[in-house]
Amino acid sequence: MKDFILRSISFVFHPLIMPLLGVIFYFHKTPRFIPEPIRNAKIFSIIILTIILPILLFFLLKTINRVETIYLKSTKERLIPLVINCVIITLILIRVLSPNEIIELYYFFLGILCSTLACFIMAVFKVKASIHMIAASGFFMFAIAIGIHFKININGTIALMMIILGAIATSRLHLKAHTNQELIIGVFTGLFPQLVLMNYWL
């Protein structure tokens, strides 16, 4: 039962959904008026580009034996998916989230791009970082920044995210997917770009 719960945590909080959670969180918390059709269009585009497209590409890579599982256990099989993800995030920055339109989300995704590039560089040098922790900690930092930016109370979100971060770390350790060092590297790889980029929009 415990093993099932921890596996479920890793699946439910998969890195693919974190960008979408960031977008939904922003639209839920922002006091700015954004027409509903624009919100829906942005969310739909993010779902297509960050969830559906990567899943389809994963099955393609699996078919040609370039990856084994969606968790990308080795640094070697991470290389191509990370490059693809960089291309997808760049496409989002160019076509979906203009800095002149929604600057907060633009820099959120720019931070995701920086974290992905850092993860790719580490994979080239055979350093494995937890992509789960990169994604979750990046969203965590963005949520804190949004709370500061709009001067709103997000204590509940912060508490919930700390629990989720702990649960993800526990699940990855229990499943022997990562070491403590790899989890710590993942946290800093996700947090640092978001923290630095806050200076440009906060």
- Give the count of helical stretches: 8
Number of strands: 0
Q: Specify the helix fraction band.
A: over 70%
Low-pLDDT regions: none
Distance between the termini: 44 Å
Our estimate of the beta-strand percent is under 5%
> Element order, helices and strands?
HHHHHHHH
Radius of gyration: 16 Å
* Global geometry: globular
Q: Return the average pLDDT rounded to an integer.
A: 88
Class by alpha and beta content = mainly alpha
Largest sheet: none
Tell me briefly what this model is.
The chain has helices at about 1-10, 20-30, 35-65, 75-95, 105-125, 130-150, 155-175, 180-195. It is mainly α and about 200 residues long. The longest helix is centred in the N-terminal third of the chain and has 28 residues, at about 35-65.
Please write out the topology.
Elements: H1 2-12, H2 18-29, H3 36-63, H4 75-95, H5 103-124, H6 131-150, H7 155-174, H8 180-197
Description of the molecule:
The chain has 202 residues and is mostly helical. The model has no long low-confidence stretch (mean pLDDT 88). The protein has 8 helices and no strands.
